[in-house]
Specification:
Shape: elongated
Distance between the termini: 71 Å
Strand order of the largest sheet: 3-2-1-4-6-5-7
Largest sheet: 7 strands, mixed
Structural class: alpha+beta
Radius of gyration: 27 Å
């Protein structure tokens, strides 16, 4: 009996050991995607610092110096190539040291050619390369008799030609720092410029493929660590974006009564309306239906602020619904979180919809591709009264509109994705 006990115990131990090994594989398998992401390497980093005279005023700005140091210190390895750039590219070394000492004068500092700067940066961002451009974003009109319309068209064609060869993404960061020095107006040129001491915007642009851009934003240009970060935009070739989604049955955002058309499926894209919600002490004309749709935005390249802006969404004309709000998972009530957990898919946000009339039919929710509102507010055609203007940049909107139109032509579509749900009587 004793021998049998030993054999059974040994077999049991071996079984537990093997089972444990198999179970131990699970978290490793789940971490595969993360590990692959960490193994990905950027082949080459090209850092372009526009050194026109109009950049000198930023050099003593604390936020500017902090952000430049933050980015440059994050460069690792020997594949870093630093350049001053204006109308030509000038290779340099010890970039941070030269910025701190104000020793950035090389080449034609009296002018800057953004068409050349961007085209060169894009060309060198092929493969797994990354290009970073630091600029004041002011398009120089001092040569060639250019108009603002010319600026937009030139940038559009430059990007369109580049995108046909490489499916690159473009990230634009609006930054701000104190500017102490001479500002050189484009719309009201004054010899020697105008002396100012105030906050002014400048910009950091990143060019590369999706994997390169994602890694750069996680490890090199980390937004949370940059002093003076204000806004961001990301342009990319959309192809087909798939978003997991499901109508939620519970939570405080649910107003009215409905049930899933298919009760066996945890992912709900069709509901049967039972009763509209009637606010207390109001007539029937004010009754409405409100519900939330769980969505997974986790892997999208679209900036968070853009995803949370209701103005960027369109509802199909055959219904009367509106997008009330987009909420992050972290800000949801417990009932909604529990409802999300009961689904087969993971969700990061919810979209809250409300309708009063035309409640039945196929409801299409579309996230439009459009230029972020902050870009339009930032651009100006008049930089004469620069004193106390801390937010606007001459011709910046034209530069960005040119970039946006190039991506629109390649994408051949005006939306990132569509979500379709059905509401039955």
């Amino acid at each position: 009996m004793k021998k049998k006990y030993i054999k059974i115990s040994t077999i049991f131990f071996v079984f537990i050991f093997i089972t444990g090994c198999r179970a131990d594989r699970l978290p490793k398998l789940l971490d595969t995607v993360k590990l692959e992401k960490e193994k990905f390497k950027i082949n080459k980093i090209n850092f372009y610092f526009e050194n026109s005279l109009s950049m000198n005023g930023y050099l003593k700005g604390e936020d500017f110096r902090h952000s430049m140091a933050e980015i440059i210190y994050n460069f690792k390895g020997d594949s870093i190539h630093n350049y001053f750039v204006n109308t030509k590219v000038h290779k340099t070394d010890s970039m941070l040291d030269k910025i701190r000492k104000g020793n950035i004068s090389v080449g034609n500092t009296g002018n800057s050619d953004h068409k050349f700067i961007f085209t060169n940066a894009i060309k060198n961002a092929a493969g797994n390369n990354l290009s970073i451009v630091v600029t004041d974003g002011i398009y120089s009109m001092s040569s060639g008799g250019l108009t603002l319309g010319d600026v937009e068209k030139d940038i559009e064609k430059a990007f369109e030609n580049a995108l046909k060869q490489n499916e690159l993404e473009t990230v634009v960061l609006k930054m701000a720092s104190n500017f102490t020095g001479r500002y050189y107006s484009e719309s009201c040129p004054i010899k020697g410029g105008v002396k100012i001491d105030q906050e002014r915007p400048y910009y950091i642009l990143l060019f590369g493929n999706k994997e390169v851009i994602d890694k750069a934003l996680e490890e090199i240009v980390v937004l949370e660590d940059l002093n003076g970060f204000k806004e961001q935009a990301r342009f990319f070739i959309t192809k087909e974006i798939k978003v997991d989604y499901s109508i939620l049955l519970n939570g405080k955002d649910k107003k009215g009564s409905f049930k899933p058309s298919d009760r066996k499926n945890k992912i709900i894209k069709s509901i049967d309306l039972e009763e509209r919600y009637e606010p207390r002490n109001s007539d029937i004309s004010k009754a409405y239906l409100q519900f939330a749709v769980g969505v997974n935005f986790t892997n999208l390249s679209i900036p968070k602020d853009y995803l949370l802006d209701t103005e960027n969404y369109t509802i199909s004309d055959n219904t009367d619904y509106e997008v009330l709000e987009i909420k992050d998972l972290r800000n949801l009530d417990q009932a909604t979180k529990n409802d999300i957990k009961s689904r087969d898919k993971d969700f990061s946000h919810i979209i809250i919809l409300k309708g009063k009339t035309k409640l039945y039919g196929d409801l299409k929710i579309q996230l439009d591709i459009k230029v972020p509102s902050w870009i339009k507010k930032t651009g100006t055609a008049n930089d004469c009264a620069i004193q106390n203007d801390t937010t606007k940049t001459f011709s910046f909107d034209k530069l960005m509109l040119g970039i946006n139109k190039a991506y629109e032509k390649i994408n051949k579509k005006n939306e990132y994705f569509n979500l379709i749900i059905k509401i039955n009587p």
